[in-house]
Amino acid sequence: MGKHARIRIYTLLGILSMSFVAAGSTAERSQEKSPDYTAALTNSERPDTERALDAARKPSEVLTFYNVKQGDKVADIWAARGYYTAILSQVVGPQGVVYSANPNARPEFAERWKNPIYANVRIVDGPFDKIGLPQDGSLDFVIIHLNYHDLTPEVRIAMNKRILGALKPSGIYAVVDHSAKDGTGNEAATTLHRIDKALVIKEVTGSGFTLAKEGNMLRKPEDTRDFNVNKERNKDDRFVLAFQKP
Predict the structure, then answer these.
(1) Which residues of the chain have pLDDT under 70?
(2) Which pLDDT belongs to residue 35?
(3) What does the CA dihedral 156, 201, 150, 63 come to, rounded to 10 degrees?
(4) Residue 20 burial (CB count, 10 A)
(5) What pLDDT score does 2 carry?
């Protein structure tokens, strides 16, 4: 066998070897399972009023999209009565922690977290421009769900920068909100309780984040975006954005 023929054979064998390695890696990745959120959603402590919201909010799909997992350190911004705080507490488990934030202290909300099953919940109520998240870059995930529009632009910018300081490099900042008509900016925030997705992207990326991806699980293309979402509930289009700390 000539020298050139041997070289061609060795080259072909090398290519085949690399192909097998790549195929094996792909197979391993395909076998990796996404976290199972069933136990968190079927937690008996969750009241029927919260369970009734699951069909519209699709928390399992949303958390799968953001890849929230056991042991994560997370925060729920504008937690209200704790829809996502309760779910996240059970998802991250005893090795994780959930910072639950409201703009004002609400004793009736805080009472819920005294239940031993929520021992990993930390209340950090107070003004959001000075939101009391640790600024040591230790968090994996932060979410503000359907309330970004309720804050003034000035507060949003200050809050975004503190969230940036709270997250680890590559940590995820989730913003889910009601879609306003394109190009309307902040105009519908107080009237229709909606906000222009482009404005959210501009503000958050301007605070130091990059837009990593967008989910479509809450989209409703038929939404005319001209009605108040608090008067006609669960009929609106919602954007699901994942911002990442560089």
Answers:
(1) 1-33
(2) 86
(3) -110
(4) 10
(5) 56
C-alpha–C-alpha distance, residues 222 and 229, integer Å: 14
User: How far, in Å, CA of 87 to CA of 129, rounded?
Assistant: 25
**Rounded Cα distance, 22 and 24, in Å:** 5
Q: Which two tokens stand for residue 80?
A: 């209200």
Radius of gyration of the chain (CA): 22
- List the Cα angle 80/74/143 in 5-degree steps: 55
Residue pair 78/147 in contact by the 8 Å Cβ criterion = yes
Between the alpha carbon of residue 85 and those of residues 44, 59, 116, 149, the distances in Å are 15, 12, 14, 20
Boundaries of every domain in the chain: 1-32, 35-244
How is residue 184 written in tokens? 């309307």
User: Taking the model in full, what pTM does it have?
Assistant: 0.86
Say what the pLDDT of residue 12 is: 43
Nearest CA to 87 out of 109, 117, 110 is that of 117
Contact partners, residue 70, CB within 8 Å, separation at least 6: 35, 91, 92, 93, 95, 96
Q: Are the C-beta atoms of 201 and 239 separated by less than 8 Å?
A: no
The domain made up of 35-244 has a fold known as Rossmann fold (3.40.50)
154 and 163 in contact (C-beta within 8 Å)? Answer: no
Mean pLDDT for all residues in the chain: 90
Please answer whether residues 67 and 37 qualify as being in contact, where contact means their C-beta atoms are separated by less than 8 angstroms. Answer: no
Q: What is the pLDDT of residue 139?
A: 98
